[in-house]
Amino acid sequence: MKQAAKARAAKGKVETASPLGRRERNKQEKLDRILAAARELFAAKGFSDTTTQEIAERADIGTGTLFLYAKSKEDLLIMVFKDEMIETSQTALRKVSPDTPIADQLMQVFGAMVAYHNRDLPLARALIREITILANPDRREDVRSLMRIIYSGIGDIIASAHAREKIRPGLDLLLVGEALFGIYYVGLIGWLNGQVTKPTFLKRLRTKLALSIDGLRVPSAEPAAPARAASSRKS
Amino acid sequence: MKQAAKARAAKGKVETASPLGRRERNKQEKLDRILAAARELFAAKGFSDTTTQEIAERADIGTGTLFLYAKSKEDLLIMVFKDEMIETSQTALRKVSPDTPIADQLMQVFGAMVAYHNRDLPLARALIREITILANPDRREDVRSLMRIIYSGIGDIIASAHAREKIRPGLDLLLVGEALFGIYYVGLIGWLNGQVTKPTFLKRLRTKLALSIDGLRVPSAEPAAPARAASSRKS
DNA sequence: GAATAAATATGAGTGTACTCATAAATGATC
DNA sequence: GATCATTTATGAGTACACTCATATTTATTC
Predict the structure, then answer these.
(1) Contact call for A195 and B226, based on CB within 8 A
(2) Cβ neighbours of A222 in B, within 8 Å
(3) What is the ipTM of this complex?
């Protein structure tokens, strides 16, 4: 990989030498290489110490090409993070007994996320970082896709729990998704802030979660359309 | 102001012409000018369309000097925003009758914040934007001060309500602060996202707030030290 | 296989937040 | 008022995310 990039850089434009240019490879392959490069570099050097140049180089593409596949550097992060987050939560859920109450199931998943966060900060911070998109009104579309990812991951959990009849039918998935994300977020702040210890945080979290789930009303008038994206993943 | 800056730019280094250079002014004056310049420009052009060069020019200082008074462009935003947010919440609270239940008082304050947000988006977005600090571990100190601001503002509200005996003594202020901030945050996402209408959001908010306040347990073992910063503002 | 159109790739170029070596001002001591 | 030390100011310079005019490949039609 590195060698290929170097060769390219040394030779300048390859025109007649290699009949197999990089363009015979299809878009998916290229995207895969980009994401792999990003994942490796983010994990090795951290997000802010990784430059888009480096990612492009490692993926063996031009600088500009990178931005045909991702709208921004942060876009790359969320793409990489998405898979890991969903995988983490689903792996955690698989270990939980079906008899466990829903609140505890969610706690397990959340615990796994937290553990993952501790293990691999540079990637996990993507979620928080990406939120900055909110500050830029031109990029609402990105926010929507971010939320779709989050709802998708959390929605899967809820849907799974629902299939085991541990949750009331008709519960507004979106609402729970929001609450869980919000709790995750708020907890993170307090935690990083150093003002709340881990056990305290987890205790509070448990309380809030129980409240959120046991106390929620099902909004009967609303069709709850936005949440459908989450449940349509595997139905 | 503009003229002064222009004159400076035209002449280059002013050495003998004006015996009253800018250095006779003390730091506070300079900071005030910087914040005023930032406030005006952010409001007029928006955050991202305002350059640090412009702010420096309007404040009649060098580019580098700006960064002696604020660690970053976003730092300026949070400084400007802090005052307005606290003022907004306190003004709102002043209009509420003492007989109003605490949940409704909070709702009033929150409504004022939302109204403010609608009225002056560029500044209000600072709060969300500043959260990006979390992504940079070198700036934990900044996060702490941000949270102190938020707790301070919300803490004042709670403290005030508490003085009117509409809230149980011993209620964990920090917890409520977290919850309110989290709710604000989550609501904002859904709102900007266009997936939740304003009335729906406010209805949900009311439900959640009631839950947070009526359902919370007071953690008796904890001294609740972090919340003290909020109440020490005026005691 | 020539000609044309459409899609995709490229990297030098651009804008801007932030830095840093240098300079100026201020204060202290004699 | 000369000398040194400390604080504060400066703007040209730097680094890096992202753009855009141009080039290259692929697809299509004859």
Answers:
(1) yes
(2) 200
(3) 0.51
